[in-house]
Every structure is written in C-alpha cells, then in structure tokens.
Here is the input.
Amino acid sequence: MGIISFAAAGAAAPCLAEPTHSGSMLESCIPCHGLDGIARDAEVPNLAGQNEAYLLNQLHAFHQGRRAHKEMLYMSRKMTDADMQALAAYFASLPPR
Ligand code: HEC
Here is the structure.
C-alpha cells in the first residue's frame, strides 16, 4: 500500500529519492497538507515550494518538542532523520501556489 502511493507521489515529483518507508510517512501527511503540498484547511500551512532547510528545521523542532503543536508532535514522533529529510526534500520540490 505504501509502495503504491509512493509510486504515485514519485510520478508527481520525479526528483524524490528512491523508495524508503517515508513513502507511507508521506501518505499520512496528505489529509492535512495535500499530496501537492497545498493545505486543505485554513489552519494548515502550505508546504509546496517552501525552503527545504526550513522544512527540515521545523520537522526537527516538532520532533524534539521545540515547536509545540499537538498534531505535528504526534506526526513527527514516528519520523526518522531520513524520513524528515525525504519529506522536506519532497515538499520543497513541489511548485508553490
Ligand atoms: C492532522 C493534520 C496534520 C497532519 C496529518 C500533518 N500535519 Fe504538518 N502541520 C499541521 C498544522 C496544523 C501545522 C501548523 C502548526 C502550527 O500552527 O504551528 C503543520 C505544520 C507543519 C510544518 C511546518 C510548516 C511551516 O511553514 O512552518 C511542516 C514542515 C509539516 N507540518 C510537515 C508535515 C509532514 C511532513 C507531515 C506528514 C508526516 C505532516 N505535516 C502531517 C497539520 C498536520
């Protein structure tokens, strides 16, 4: 399941690195941030086209509890360093809106 959705995401963003389990991690971001990185809700920030270094910093900050947010703390708990790098690179590679 994760592999299939990863393939779909990979097609949208050809520069995404080779499959890791961050494919299924990406799947869990989609309901809020969108596969295209454009948020579905007014309280959720767009991630498409954001600086990769900034996105990675924010994920680290959520992960380490330096940036407090209930949902993102929960999401980032499960992330490895490689996940965060892949996710930051993926969303940074998308066209902003
Ligand atoms: C339940 C909804 C939800 C899910 C699922 C979710 N996020 Fe978020 N995310 C948010 C909200 C809301 C914020 C804004 C946090 C705040 O207000 O401080 C946010 C903020 C962020 C930010 C910081 C953006 C910025 O401009 O500072 C990043 C990066 C991020 N999310 C990445 C992810 C990734 C990667 C995933 C999947 C692993 C994910 N999010 C899953 C709701 C969600």
